[in-house]
Amino acid sequence: DSLETDRQARRLRLNRIAEAQEKSLSPASREVLAAYARGVNYYLETHRDRLPPEFAILGYSPRPWRVRDSLLALLEMQRELTNSWRDELSKQHMLSVGKQEKVDLLYPPNATVPLTPGSNAWVIAGAHTASGKPLLSNDPHLQWNLPSTWYMIHLQAANLDVSGFALPGIPAVLIGHNRNIAWGMTNLGYDVQDLVEEKIELATGRYVKNGRFEQARLERDTILVKGERAVELDTWITSDGPAFVSDEGHMYALRWSADLDAARLDFALLDLNRAKNWEEFTGALARLDGPAQMVMYADTAGNIGAHAFGRLPIRKGCAGDVPSDGSMDACVWQGYLPFDELPHVYNPSDGRIVSANQNVFTPTTNGMFAPRYRAQRIGELLRSHESWRAEDMLQVQTDVYSAQAHLVAKKIAEAWDRHPSDKARTKAAVDELKRWDGKMDRGSGAAMLAAIAYERIRKAIAESAAPGKGEEWERSFFAPEVVEHLLADRPDGWFKDYDTMLIDAVEGALTEGEKFYGSKVSLWDYGQYNELRFDHPVASKLPLIGKYFSIGPAPMGGSPTTVKQTSARLGPSMRMTVDLGALDHSLANITFGQSGHWLSSHARDQWDAYSAGTSFPMRFEQLGPVQVLRVTPR
Q: Is the Cβ–Cβ distance between 472 and 106 less than 8 Å?
């Protein structure tokens, strides 16, 4: 079942990248990661007969942990957060049948947002809080994982006292706080991948570059498959990267910032964990390569800030939005943006900074940036009153109002009012939309109708731009703002009549919804439409009892354009608010549970609080632990 995932990891050269990174580690970084590896391996060797059930079920005895495995854990997160090459192919497919100006409108470089910089994270200065010190909140949006993606941990050692969220396999806190500072992260969205079309002979590896033949390097992998023959995988490596994307008779190499210039690597996360002020904090950030993130900052002295980090390529001759011609070097990278030139802000006069994956670069910068709706809504809520406390931030993190869906509902209602008919069924549905408050709540029929109608409008727009290729735009980040633009400005050339398209969309949505939820929209339930199920990757496949190791079906509120961004693919992977005035007043929780052992009482003991939008104390001073593990080196 995992063979294709393994193929993809080999084609992206993740193991080889990690091997090169390991060789380039500074001595201090290598020492830390090697010590961590020794600890993992000591546990494995002393617990071979007591490993979790998955190992017995799969007949799997793990090999020793290596330094590069910790680097691979970071690379895997980088892979999850940077998949823009797929959008390049989608846009190219649409351009093959559509008009350039229409397709370009569907893939715009997002404009900047007035809130200084743009997962969700925000920080507010003490002038707006009850304690007089900053509050920092973060809820990164990632693909759903069971067990939970994050591991909550408090690390204490010489010159180290830090609490927060770690990724298993990485010996540091990625998001959290120490005694002096707090920080959170959101994905930056800047495009760090380019597809390059190669004129390559797959039998020999010869390819054309600037009018002459060059020889690609062959990398061969063998993937062992249990109970079946081993799978051989050959990949040609050109000067542009691994040539592994075959599409409609064309072969593309992937140029990726993670796979270039592995001459330097510094495991700076522990320095980030130890930082005491803005200067030390940004000094550590400058040594982090990726995945590219926007980082929120606050400290006990009352300062707030934000700074981007990562290796962001400087392009010449192209935008990077479609594959380039490798034979002519049509798109080249001229190094990376200097750290000091990356978007940043420190102690803004407004005392509020919001990041919600929106574009924080120039309007022409290419990337996978989120629509402005989450960032704007967070800003509106933060300005709605003063004297914020940590527990108040849960109201913001779980907010389900969608300005975008509300606008779609209003535009449908306006179209109906201009062209009413005697269809009682449609009139009743439109009346539900008129009464709706725009909240994507469980139990709301209007929210469900608006969501289905939006999908039909989006498909109609995509088909108008590129007939027969509209499905390429299905999961586009850009769709919500493009839909708003077309419905508000109604440019010529897209539809004969926008009102007719809108009425057709709502009537089609009614027909679709009635098949599953009945004829009365007032009785529909958006939570059923946005219903999630989480299956344990191993235990859920066990015959007869596998169903007991899943969570769900779980009806959920929220949508891709609400602060609580929830869909079948992703959602808030954790929630945290740090109170710099009293660290013990901070709050934190993850999705399911701290333990990966499915029979543990801690495997899913946070789910009820998470789904209800409540949280737990993030103790730092007054710990009151139930169990303590104290390690004394000798």
A: no
pLDDT tens, position by position, 152-166: 999 999 899 999 999
Scan for tokens 């999908």, then name that residue.
455
Residue type, 410: K
Tokens describing residue 167: 């990724």
In a 3-state reduction of DSSP, which class is residue 27? helix
Q: Which residues does residue 534 pair with via DSSP β-bridges, in sequence order?
A: 551
Both tokens assigned to 384: 């709605």
Cβ neighbours of residue 354 under 8 Å, at least 6 residues apart?
Answer: 115, 117, 118, 121, 122, 375, 378, 379, 382
Find the largest Cα–Cα distance for the chain. 85
Taking the C-alpha atoms of residue 524 and residue 530, their distance in angstroms, rounded to an integer, is: 12
DSSP 321: S
In this prediction, residue 264 carries a pLDDT of 57
**Which residues contact residue 8 at a Cβ distance below 8 angstroms, ignoring those fewer than 6 apart?**
none
Residue 435 has pLDDT above 70, yes or no: yes
What burial letters (b/e) apply to 277-300, b meaning 16+ CB within 10 Å?
ebeebbebbebbbbbbbbbbbbbb
Both tokens of 114, joined, read 């007035």
Q: How far is CA 174 from the centre of its chain?
A: 15
Contact 144, 556 (CB under 8 A): no
Strands (E), 430-549: 531-535
336 CB-contact burial (10 Å; exposed 0-12 / middle 13-18 / buried 19+): middle
Q: Are 91 and 321 in contact (CB under 8 A)?
A: yes
Pairing of strands 293-299, 160-166: unpaired
Tens of pLDDT, residues 536-591:
888 888 888 888 888 989 999 999 999 999 988 899 999 999 999 999 999 999 99
| Residue keyed to tokens 């120490």 | 178
Residue 469 CA neighbour count, 13 Å, CB half: 16
Helix (H, G, I), strand (E, B) or coil at 213: strand
pLDDT score of 630? 81
Length of the chain, in residues? 634
Closest to 474 (Cα-Cα) out of 86, 53, 97, 144: 86
- Rg (Cα) of the chain, in Å, rounded? 26
Contact assessment for residue 563 and residue 372, using Cβ atoms and an 8 Å cutoff: no
Model confidence at 605, pLDDT cuts 50, 70, 90, reads very high
Measure the CA–CA gap between 215 and 622, rounded to whole angstroms.
63
Using the predicted structure, report yes or no on whether residue 234 has a pLDDT greater than 90: yes
- Which amino acid, one-letter code, is at 31? E
d(CA 51, CA 149): 20
Q: Give the separation between CA 558 and CA 441, rounded to whole angstroms.
A: 7
Q: Would you tell me how many other CB atoms lie within 10 Å of the CB of residue 511?
A: 11
Distances (CA, A) of 102 to 98, 371, 486: 7, 19, 11
Tokens 């899913």 correspond to 604
CA neighbor of 373 nearest in space, from 438, 308, 437, 432 = 438
> Measured at the alpha carbon of residue 95, what is the angle toward residues 93 and 99, in degrees to the nearest 5?
150
Distance CA 397, CA 169 (A): 28
